[in-house]
Design a protein that fits this description.
The protein is 37% helix and 20% strand. The protein has eleven helices and eight strands. Helix 1 links the parallel strand 3 and strand 4. InterPro entries: AB_hydrolase_1, AB_hydrolase_fold, Carboxylesterase_BioH.
Length: 252
Amino acid sequence: MQQTEFGPEGAYIRWTESEGVGPARVHVHGLGAASGPYTAHLSAYPELAGRRTLYVDLPGFGISDRPADFGYSLEDHASALAAVLDAAGVDGAEVVGHSMGGSVAIVLAYRRPDLVSRLVLAEANLDPVPAPGITSSGVAGWSEEEFVHGGGFAATLERVGWLWRSTMRLADPLALHRSACGLIRGTEPTMRAMLTGLGIPRTYLVGEVGDGIDDLDGLAAAGVRVVRVPDSGHCIMFDNPRAYAAAISAAA
């Protein structure tokens, strides 16, 4: 396990990694998840073996610290991820981001193009959600006080399935809520605009029965390679890990 400081003084973001050659591959998890259980198993597939691979836990999740004086916006998470790559001596990485992790990866590539040579995005959030009542997994529907101290976190854990609950229950409630709100709020320019404007190779993976991402044709027209992964939903890495590993490898 390795760590480096980010944001507030004395706060550390942590990651594990496997040795290998070639450009580093960096896995970034989604909201309420952690990189180890969501992605470490993928390196067992021959097509992904042999590369230096970093498994990063974003602030507030997994094994990373969870400071209360951190914003947890997409930009904040991207800055923390940049601190990891700088500390690890990584540039020109292939960044593989799932869901919110894909959004963070887009912001990282937009703000620090030296760090990212290729993006592989799995069901990444691309647009803010302005409509009333639409929230990221229901978390952002609560006020921060209600979610953290008024039973919202417990109610959310009760509502989600066992798989998501297994890592979400390890997340810091404040970090989870602020991250969900940041995802709903989005960025300026939007994540979609950042993605379509990038000049690096970009692959967008869609679960066959996933979340129904808007305007995939527009992504393709902007040069983003769109790949539908069969027999999978939003969590492609669990539903069809072999096909997910193959799709990541094919993006290289």
